[in-house]
Design brief:
The complex is a heterodimer. Chain A is α/β, with parallel strands linked by helices. Chain A has 25 helices and twelve strands. Chain A has a six-stranded mixed sheet, sandwiched between helices. In chain A, strands 4-3-6-7 form a four-stranded antiparallel sheet, covered by helices on one side. Chain A has a two-stranded antiparallel ribbon with strand order 1-2. Chain B is about 40% helix and about 15% strand. Chain B has a seven-stranded mixed sheet with strand order 7-6-8-9-10-13-14, with helices on both faces. Chain B has a five-stranded parallel sheet with strand order 2-1-3-4-5, with helices on both faces. A two-stranded antiparallel ribbon of chain B has the order 11-12. In chain B, strand 8, helix 8 and strand 9 form a beta-alpha-beta unit. In chain B, helix 2 runs parallel beside helix 11. Chain B is globular. The chains are: A alpha/beta, B alpha/beta. At the A-B interface, helix 1, helix 2, helix 5, helix 12 and helix 14 of A face helix 1, helix 2, strand 2, helix 3 and helix 4 of B.
Chain lengths: ~600, ~400
């Protein structure tokens, strides 16, 4: 990705140029067979784009896009046969139908993740195939219109079909390209990389996934309708068959997933290739075309596992990470301990009352009650397995407590989804960092900024501020996957910060950092606290904690063992026995 | 996206197209006839058999002096692979009309759905196509350039039960009173049973005592055959389309003591008569099983069949072999009438043709004349029965190679 100006002009221009070249080539072809191939290529490109819009960006692999495709095809065919509806209206309606089907399929199926989602998606076209056979639609043909062929899209010159297909493809590309760079694309990519982190960053993952499958279904439905007009014969295996879903997946995977160009490249290369092989070898050595085609795909997958597009991009530009020199790390300057205001008697931002959570027989959190005062830094300490992270997961909605109350600013938030709690003003980071690795630093933070941003520009501005705040602004364009541990910790802080939280839950933010780095991160945390953000931090690094926090809560076996000022807690015998250990006693004595 | 990528894409596209454009077929003086059928994919075997049939017929025609009205011009076959999907079949048809402009006609495309797609293309290119696909839809679209040599699905369904009754009565002296149906839900089976369920049973005074439909592939035939055993119909319509399903059902019937002709069993189409079945199951278990087909080896073609067996190593000629073989002789007759190698003239000749000799001996009914829809008039059905490991035509009597075996009750 280059600067924002080029970003706006580049893809649009490339799509227009590609369209002109494709149209020009099509215009010069007089052989009706090649005209048909020029028509079929965009059909499969759009099918690939449709698959890509859902699966490529969100990572939820669909094996069932034939369901939408087939519904569109059958709708256009049946509407023309029974109601005389022209495909000029039928195809847009097929798109609407595909969209509705997407929504209906998405609602129950998004409860599943990973392989289970992929398998469930596989079932829809298979079921529909049998339903349409049962309905008696084994073979449908679109009646030949001798009087008004234009109205039925039955042109004598097949180039018109190719131009129509091209228009549909350019439309799908423009839409994808627009969405890719907007909130839509970023949210989906965030979901793809870490759905839980996305949810915690305030992204309503279910809503975005539903939007994606609806749009994706609409694209597939419309192109399925068009396919019926081109093929003129609709049979369940031809439109609901495994091959249809597979073809969508293959062109996208071959060309490159998660980019507008991938499915197009895939279709432009593979569809003619398969046809040429079929035409030239099919009669000579029957079946050899399948072998050659298969080997070609395997070879490309081995040489360019992410697809042709990404490989070409790598070869032509090198990845952005390599071209941007890493600026030297700022020298760590230990900050002086500044006096913290006293928070006793201040208003309460978060209240826990008798919160418990058990996993089977393990009581991870038992009867925990405490208040967090507005603006304070609260440290949560305790031995491994004391239930600290579980407590955070209860607070930000990842898990629902078995009993008890959690009130944020006086409102009960038990049972709220994580993105809602994030929207309400609770940000969090993770014990094991969960950045969106394949996104740039800036994009990571923008994903977190959408919660309260009215527009994409506003989100970008908020993200900038957050990056400046944590000192990562110079690294904005690097890929998150290439950051150091400290930078990742700061990135998570920035992402949480971009959601304008009132309360920040920091889970072992200092873990694995060296001495200088610890000081740097602590400085940032303190800066945030100084701005009035309430902070709850889990940490094991006691010397750092003692200097950072206003108050401690000590957890042991899921229950509160002690609370108090750092000085009190660190001298508490029970705390020393359970957590700090004898060496601590020896050192502090 | 930068300039280089744009250029690269443009270049790749141009390269791909130049490869595509290269290799348009060179012109020959021979008269070109097309065969469009699955040469690859799951139906490749049947496509290969069709190719053997066409080659054999053309060889015979050329040896006998070619097209006499055109100075002994030779026929030449061009094959187009319809592949394994409707899309591929349609693409192949488009390639056929675009790359072979001298083609005077073609035959194909095995599956009804392929034929439907192929003829959408050939109709627009005004290329005459002969087909043995059954589907009524093929000749219900007002097309002028498609000629169906088989009885259509509806005609076969209408005619098969009365034919069966007649045959049963003659062979056993008794008219069946009850009938059972076990079928899969594919297009061919559904179309076949529809008129039987709606009108035939009542008209023939038959009672339907068991009626089961399954979705292929069948995992277990036991529940279906159990129902058949307890209902004990006088005749069973058993309609699997997949050879594996046929095997399962027949083996189960044997296990339950209903096989080997004990319960008269009749199917639809050539699946249950396929040579593959003989290699995959005990031949004795096939004994007595019958099927209704549009074409098979009949008494008229005994000599030709010997030649066929020698040249192909196939145990017998199936319906797609017989029909494709006969189609070449139909083209020969049409070309003789037309006197020129031009598709429009061939189409006109086909519309005018009315012969009872020449190609007619390869088609049941013994007459080649097409009505205005393109259906062969007088196209009848044949009933074929497994007898001693070979499916033989047993009905109608004048075309039969053997007498039907029917259990005396």
């Amino acid at each position: 990705m280059k600067t924002s100006n080029r970003k706006l002009a580049g893809p649009g221009l490339a799509i227009i140029l590609f369209g002109i070249v494709y149209a020009a080539v099509t215009g010069f072809i007089s052989n009706s067979y090649y005209q048909l191939i020029m028509t079929v290529v965009p059909v499969w490109a759009v099918m690939g784009l449709s698959w890509n819009l859902l699966s490529g960006y969100s990572g939820l692999v669909s094996f069932g896009h034939a369901a939408f495709f087939g519904l569109g095809a059958y709708f256009v065919a049946l509407a023309q046969i029974h109601w005389g509806l022209t495909p000029w209206i039928g195809i847009p309606l097929a798109g609407v139908l595909g969209g509705i089907a997407g929504l209906v399929v998405g609602l129950p199926t998004f409860r599943l993740r990973g392989h289970y989602f992929a398998l469930a998606m596989l079932a829809y076209p298979l079921a529909l195939l049998y339903v349409f056979e049962w309905l008696g639609y084994q073979e449908l043909t679109l009646p030949m219109q001798r009087e008004a062929p234009m109205l039925a899209m039955q042109f004598a010159d097949h180039r018109v079909h190719a131009f129509l297909a091209l228009a549909l493809m350019l439309g799908a590309m423009a839409l994808t390209s627009r969405l890719e760079r907007a909130r839509f694309g970023l949210s989906l990519v965030a979901i793809k990389q870490d759905e839980a982190a996305a949810e915690a960053a305030g992204i309503n993952t279910l809503a975005w996934k539903l939007k994606a499958i609806t749009l994706s279904g609409a694209m597939a439905g419309a192109i399925g309708g068009f396919y019926a007009v081109v093929l003129l014969v609709v049979t369940p295996p031809a439109v609901f068959g495994m091959l249809v879903s597979a073809q969508a997946l293959i062109v996208a995977m071959f060309g490159g997933v998660g980019t507008v160009w991938g499915p197009v490249i895939g279709a432009v290369v593979l569809v003619p290739l398969s046809e040429i092989l079929h035409a030239r070898l099919g009669n000579v050595i029957p079946g050899i075309q399948g072998v050659v085609y298969g080997i070609a795909i395997v070879a490309v997958i081995l040489l360019a596992p992410e697809g042709v597009f990404w490989k070409m991009k790598d070869l032509l530009f090198r990845r952005a990470t390599k071209s941007v020199p890493t600026p030297p790390a700022a020298a760590a300057v230990p900050l002086p301990i500044t006096a913290r205001p006293d928070h006793a008697g201040k208003s309460v931002i978060l209240e826990l009352r008798n919160v418990s959570k058990a996993f089977g027989g393990l009581k991870a959190v038992q009867d925990v009650s405490f208040d967090v005062a507005n603006g304070e830094i609260l440290g949560i300490i305790g031995p491994n397995g004391a239930g600290k992270t579980t407590l955070f997961n209860l607070l930000n909605g990842f898990i629902v407590p078995d009993q008890g109350e959690v009130r944020f600013e006086g409102r009960d938030i038990v049972g709220d989804k994580p993105y809602r709690i994030c929207t309400a003003g609770v940000g969090r980071t993770f014990q094991v960092v969960r950045p969106f690795r394949r996104m740039t630093v800036e994009q990571n933070v923008i994903a977190g900024a959408f919660v309260h941003a009215a527009s994409d520009d506003a989100a970008r501005a908020t993200a900038r501020e957050a990056l400046v705040e944590v000192g990562l602004d110079r690294h904005a364009q690097r890929l998150a996957g290439g950051l150091t541990n400290k930078e990742l910790r700061l990135l998570e802080l920035a992402r949480a910060l971009a959601g304008r939280p009132k309360l920040l839950l920091l889970d072992e933010t200092l873990a694995g950092l060296g001495g200088g780095d610890v000081e740097e991160v602590i400085a940032v945390v303190r800066k945030l606290a100084a701005k009035g953000i309430t902070i709850v931090i889990i940490e094991h690094t006691m010397p750092a904690m003692v200097r950072l926090v206003d108050r401690f809560i000590v957890l042991d076996h899921g229950a509160v063992l002690a609370t108090g000022l750092p000085a009190e807690v660190t001298r508490n015998e029970a705390v020393i026995d359970a957590y700090l250990g004898k060496r601590w006693r020896a050192e502090s004595a | 996206m930068n300039e280089m990528v744009r250029k690269a894409i443009g270049g790749a596209l141009a390269a791909a197209l130049s490869i595509v454009a290269f290799g348009a077929a060179a012109q020959k003086k021979d008269i070109e006839v097309g065969l469009i059928a699955p040469m690859s994919g799951p139906w490749a075997r049947q496509g290969q058999v069709m190719k053997v049939a066409a080659d054999l017929a053309i060889d015979t025609i050329n040896k006998q002096g070619g097209i006499k009205s055109m100075g002994g011009a030779k026929l030449k076959l061009t094959v187009f692979d319809a592949g394994d999907s409707v899309e591929k079949a349609k693409n192949a048809a488009q390639r056929m009309v675009a790359d072979a402009p001298d083609l005077v006609g073609a035959t194909g495309a095995y599956l009804s759905s392929f034929t439907l797609a192929v003829t959408e293309v050939t109709e627009r290119a005004q290329l005459p196509v002969l087909t043995f696909s059954y589907s009524d839809l093929i000749t219900s679209r007002g097309f002028k350039y498609v000629f169906q040599t088989s009885a259509t699905g509806d005609q076969m369904a209408e005619a098969s039960l009365p034919a069966l009754m007649e045959m049963a009565e003659k062979a056993s002296g008794k008219r069946p009173k009850t009938v059972g149906v076990v079928m899969d839900n594919t297009a061919a089976s559904v179309a076949f049973v529809k008129p039987i369920r709606s009108t035939q049973l009542e008209r023939l005074g038959l009672k339907l005592v068991v009626d089961e439909t399954f979705t292929p592939p069948l995992a277990n035939a036991t529940p279906l055959i159990q129902k058949v055993r307890s209902a004990r119909p006088d005749v069973l319509l058993l309609m699997p389309t997949a050879i594996s399903d046929a095997k399962l059902l027949l083996e189960k019937m044997n296990e339950f003591g209903l096989g080997r002709g004990k319960m008269p069993t009749i199917s639809n189409g050539a699946a249950i008569l396929d040579p593959d079945l003989r290699t995959n199951m005990n031949v004795e278990q096939l004994e007595g099983v019958m099927s209704v087909v549009a074409n098979w080896t009949t008494a008229a073609q005994k000599d030709m069949v010997e030649d066929f067996k020698k040249k192909t190593n196939e145990p017998w000629a199936t319906q797609h072999f017989m029909t494709t073989y006969g189609d070449m002789f139909i083209f020969k007759a049409a070309l003789e009438m037309a006197g020129k190698a031009d598709r429009e003239s061939v189409a006109q000749a086909l519309r005018k043709m009315d012969v009872t000799d020449g190609p007619a001996k390869y088609f049941p009914g013994g007459r080649v004349k097409f009505d205005e829809r393109g259906r062969r008039e007088g196209a009848t059905l044949l009933i074929v029965q497994w007898q001693n490991g070979i499916p033989l035509t047993v009905y109608p009597a004048k075309e039969a190679l053997a007498a039907p075996a029917w259990p005396k009750q």
